[in-house]
Amino acid sequence: MSARDDAVVRPPGDSIIRTPDQHLRVFVSSTLDELADERQAVSRAISTLRLTPVMFESGARPHPPRDLYRAYLAQSDAFIGLYWQRYGWIGAGMTISGLEDEFELSRALPRLLYVKTPAPDREHRLTDLLDRIRQEATVSYRAFRTPGELGRLVRDDLAMLLSERFAATRPSAAEPASVPARSATPRGPRPLPAGTTSLVGRDQAISEVANLTGRPDVRLVTLTGPGGIGKTRLAVAVGERLRDRFDSGTAFVPLAAISQPDLVMAGIGRAVGADMAGTNAPLDALVEQFGDGRWLLILDNLEQVTDAATELNDLLARCHGVTILATSLTVLRLRAEREYPVPPLPLPADPSTVPVEGLMSSSPAVALFVDRARAVRYDFALTEGNATAVVGICQRLEGLPLAIELAAARTRVLEPAALLRRLGRSLDALGPGMVDMPERQRTLRATVDWSMGLLDDAERSLLEIMAVFVDGWTTEAAAQVAGLDEERALALAETLARHSLIQLDRTGLGPRSRMLETVREFVAERLKARPDVAEVGRRHAEHYRALAEQADRPLRGVGQYEWTERLESEAGNLAAAVRWYLAHDPAPLPHLFRVLWPFLFLRDHLGEARSWVDQLVPSADSLNPQARAELMWTAAVTASDMGDDRAALAAGQHLAPLLDGVEDPYLHAVCQLAIAWTSPIVGDFDNLLLEATASLERLHSQDEPFLTALAAFTAGVAETTVGRYDDALRHLREMRDLAERFDNTWLAACSRVQLGALAALRGRLDEASALLDEGLALSLATHSTHNVSICLIAFARLAFVEGDPEKAALLAGAAEGPRRRAGLRAWPMLRRGEAELRAQIRQTLGADRFDHVYAAGSRLHQREAAAVIRDPRASSVAPIVR
Fold it and tell me: Are 513 and 466 in contact (CB under 8 A)?
């Protein structure tokens, strides 16, 4: 046996155990091996307060010298119990462990108990003991996770105990001691935490919450949101603003360390200075304390004790002047409750569209980053050189204040660009936060772990499975991938939403759930560790493959708009499914690529699709004839669209010999169209027209409006290029008629633009202007880079014909800039006409002036270029070209 060196140990028969300095003694009870670090932390905390820790290390081992630790306890002034998973040894002749015996013998002392969480392997006898302890109103029962957190709790609680409990005379050792009465001098409410950093970007939220909380008919407001969103700071700021409205007091009640709902009332009592000593009814004591006074209670971190909702409801019912402002990951689900979901900070705009000096004022996320970066680097400034990286960091972190603060702290050693690169690999690059932050918020990982620790097994399992989704999911998808029925999946999802771990959105396509990427990244690590991770990935991929198959016919006809919208919302999941098939089963991919092509083409997703196709092309010879044709067709059209002429030609050359073996009429026709699209790369406009016309004839016998219109468009462009204007007009009008018949905005825009360009070439300028105006409005609505670019080129042609070469040069540059930024090139069949137009403008303006104006136009974004077209004063481009 042993004890702390600073305690004088005497035989049990000696009635006095003293310390040389006569300090108050604090007996520490715990099992040994599993809590060694925690015992050291408690010893340091006790010594810091100039008290003496008494740590009888044999108390929970076999054959305990019971008389000895009874003497220690009898001569100690306070008792601390530390518990985790082990119940402790039961000695010979005893029916309970030394750990439980010490607790039972300590009833004469003020007691502070601390329970370590989580405890997945807690022994059942310790569980029973803790259940009994919870029933005792005079015991302080607090949860902790780390030795550091425990040390802080012990220091705070002992200091409180000394001020409240030992003002009265200590009872003699000869008689049982009751809990001493507290000082008759009442304490005031705990003050609001003093802010050590500025609250950035929350002015609107402070006003909204203050207005809501200050209403006489509102008694309970709960600020919800994921960890790190800034709920506590917002609540404190609201409390400061409303301080004068609650004349009896505003009290801040920190609850993060409390894990038992029945201790919440006592925690409120301590915060408001109520006399809770010896009471078995904390609620009654609070009612007496509050009376009819106007109080604002800020209950911080309520999520792990939401079962206290009933008592809080009773408190509000009995104290009509009390208002509660709570922060929590989840709501309390009381009828009186008003929820205020705290949003992330608004994300910054593209720095290329906003001057650097405007980013700070227009983006709270950027302002927060700069403010916190200056705290660690006094000379940090937002500049042209780092603005793009700072914006990228804020976007990567989705406007989450805690994440932005952690990132900004890394600027002490990393420039923003280097930090952004590291964040692209892992959010752990954020590193630890300041030491005065709550331990659960020192890192994003700790924040997520804290939130997940509040879930039950079924909720945690679904959350882990949901990490397989990218950019959200539907309830149907969640149920299928998780192997649940939809009702069960919906119920669990609602619980996860109440815990602020997922968000439920109402969209035009119906309800949809999503997970912040800052949460998803860490939850995904748990998914990878699951034994069923491969099965989860397979079910996810199969679900989205089936979704794509459903879209095949609608994407080529009447339902194209609805399905492109739906697939756009699932673009991240579709990409994840493709990656799964690339890694595990590539056989279905050629058909999947062919099915998805209209969506990928219309929504500018061909860049990523091109990389997928390139991974499959080397194995094309191992595929069956139809799959090989589908793969080479996709390779040809994506390479052509992306401007990779060599790859497009190679794919077209591989595709031509396959045509005779293609039995599917639709596939045969579109393969001919792909060959037509590659022909202009080598200047073969005759073959372009030949293959396009043949494809169009085949498609006329099929119900394929979208591809029929594209074939008519291709024939019309080819005929325009070679000067066959009447034939071109017939084919372009066919495209326009198909667009109107099937209400297809993309086709309508494209047809009007080409008809307008043709009208300009034929000298019909008024007709051209009207058609192009319609085409521009429709093109902007489609969000298609290609469509807007060909529209701008057509306006450039019109401006040149009308005698304004500078405006023509500006618009020609504006057409090329967005394509270049998107990694696209003009379609091969359009390049000759565009090149001839640029040459004509250059010759008219002179090379130097053309290059200068063209470069200025290339810097414009699409809507800026549209404004140039629509502004009647834009005949002079001087305000834009400097």
Answer: yes
| Residue 257 · residue 285 · CB < 8 Å | no
Contact 632, 591 (CB under 8 A): no
Q: How many CB atoms lie within 10 A of CB 882?
A: 6
**Contacts of residue 588, Cβ cutoff 8 Å, sequence gap at least 6:** 545, 581
Question: Which helix (H) or strand (E) element contains residue 640?
Answer: helix 625-642
Beta-bridge partners for 224: 328, 341
Instruction: Tell me the whole-structure pTM to 2 decimals.
Output: 0.61
In the CATH hierarchy, which top-level class contains the domain 203-341? alpha beta
Give whole-number Cα distances, 100 to 122, 137, 804, in Å.
15, 18, 94
Distance between CA atoms of residues 273 and 294, nearest Å: 15
Measured between alpha carbons, how far is residue 738 from residues 712, 713, 855 in Å?
Answer: 10, 11, 37
**Residues 6+ away with beta carbon under 8 Å from 676:** 687, 688, 689, 690, 691, 692, 695, 714, 718
* Percent of the chain predicted with pLDDT > 90: 38
Tokens of 604: 């500018």
Cis preceding linkage at 118, omega within 30: yes
pLDDT digits (tens, 9 = 90+) for 713-753: 999 999 999 999 999 999 999 999 999 998 899 999 999 99
Q: What is the pLDDT of residue 429?
A: 57
Residue 795 CB partners (closer than 8 Å, separation 6+): 772, 776, 811, 869
Q: Name the strand (E) or helix (H) holding 298.
A: strand 295-300
Ranges of each domain in the chain: 25-165, 203-341, 356-433, 455-598, 744-872
CB 716 within 8 A of CB 728: yes
Which CATH architecture fits 25-165? 3-Layer(aba) Sandwich (3.40)
| Adjacent-strand bridge partners of 252 | 298
- Closest C-alpha among 644, 670, 611, 704 to residue 828: 644
User: Do 329 and 304 contact (CB within 8 A), yes or no?
Assistant: no
Indicate if the pLDDT at residue 876 is higher than 60: no
Query: What stretches of 64-184 show up as alpha helix (H) in DSSP?
Result: 66-74, 98-105, 124-134, 147-165
Contacts of 342 (CB under 8 A, 6+ apart): 205, 223, 224, 225, 229, 230, 231, 234
Decide: 199 and 345 in contact? Cβ < 8 Å. no
CATH class of 455-598: mainly alpha
Decide if 203-341 and 455-598 have a common fold: no
Mean pLDDT, residues 872-879:
52
3-class secondary structure, 684: coil
